Amino acid sequence: MSAPILTGPRWVTVRQHRHVLWALPAVVATSLAGVVALRWWAANGADLYPSSPDGPLRSAMDVAGIGMLLLPLLVGAFVAGPMVARELESGTYRLALTQSSTPRAWLAAKITVASAAAVAGSAALAGVYRLGWLPLDGTYQFSWADRGPYESTGTVIVAYCLLGVAVGALAGQLLRRTLAAMAVTGLVTGLVMVVLGALRWSFMPVRTITTSTAPGVPKLPKDALMMDLGLTTASGGRLPEGACFARTRSMSHCPPDMEVTGWYLDYHPYAHYWPTQSIETAVVLVLAALALWGAFAVLRSRHP
Q1: Looking at the structure, do residues 130 and 185 belong to the same domain, yes or no?
Q2: What residue numbers bound the domain in which 241 lies?
Q3: Residues 38-43: contacts with CB under 8 Å, at least 24 apart
Q4: Terminal CA-CA length for the chain
Q5: Most exposed: 81, 83, 124, 138, by fewest CB within 10 Å?
């Protein structure tokens, strides 16, 4: 950051939390070194089966995926507690207000510094994760659509970190208690991630493959995410995959009264990855903007 940017409350905020800000590039550098070492290990034959359940690279990336999912919660909790609520709880924020700084400038400095660190850090960690994920792409639990790789290899992880910042600022203002604000921020951010994770594959319409009963079950295209599989009927309806088996105990024989004509397969192709990322990122950023507006609204109500 240039000198004109780090003035007043922003400079104070950076000084207050410099240890955490210095720790962030250290974490990125350490993660990068670890991933490069593990990929070198695999490429030179020391790890003969890098995608096996016991492979060092796979084990490390399992842990990394969990860490990436927890990152927005940690960012939000830090903003809610140490950056905002702790100063309100202890009353030290009043010192900033006596240094020719307005309440709005005080909160804006917190959010600006936290947002810049969150964007830079999450983007860098996403790049490191993608480097380690590439040799595992397409293996069990490491496809582009799986929970963990999906969030960690695209833009949504950055958006969720910004959501954590905004929710943390709002919770810190509302609760004014460090632990309570941290807990609520983590809960709300995590809940949003779970809900949108359940809804994301409804953002784009699925593609469908249908076949007659003779060729059998449709083949899932390469790198596709299967959403649904079942039977079609003469009336155009759909039946569950095991409907015939429930009646005849045979997957290849269906009773005539069911009027089964073939199979259907609903799926998302890999081409839906970036459009889905873009839609989810936009939704999360809108939620972050609303939370940010709420934080400043609470600030105005208490410091008119």
Answers
A1: yes
A2: 207-271
A3: 38/132, 39/131, 39/132, 39/135, 42/135
A4: 31
A5: 138
